[in-house]
Amino acid sequence: xxxxxxxxxxxxxxxxxxxxxxxxxxxxxxxxxxxxxxxxxxxxxxxxxxxxxxxxxxxxxxxxxxxxxxxxxxxxxxxxxxxxxxxxxxxxx
Length: 93
Known about the structure:
Blueprint: H1 10-25, H2 30-39, H3 46-53, H4 61-71, H5 76-79, H6 87-90
Helix pairs in contact: 2-3, 2-4
C-alpha cells in the first residue's frame, strides 16, 4: 500500500519562508547556504534547500539546526513569526 506524504502545516510554511527571507537578507545564494550546511556537517544540496524553501520538502530538525547555524540565528528564529516593528522602533536602527 502506498503512503500519502504528510502535508506541510502552517509552521512548516512559515519556516520555509523565513529560511528564504533570512538567506536573502544575508546575501546568500541557495548554493552558498547549502555549502555552509555541508561544511557544518549536514550535507545538503542546493536542490534540497530550494525544495525546502518552496515547501516542497519537509525540513527535519537536523536540517533546521544546520540552516539556522549557517544563517547565524537560533533555530527558534526560523520557527516563530518575526516581531512587528513599529515606526518608533525603526528610528533606532
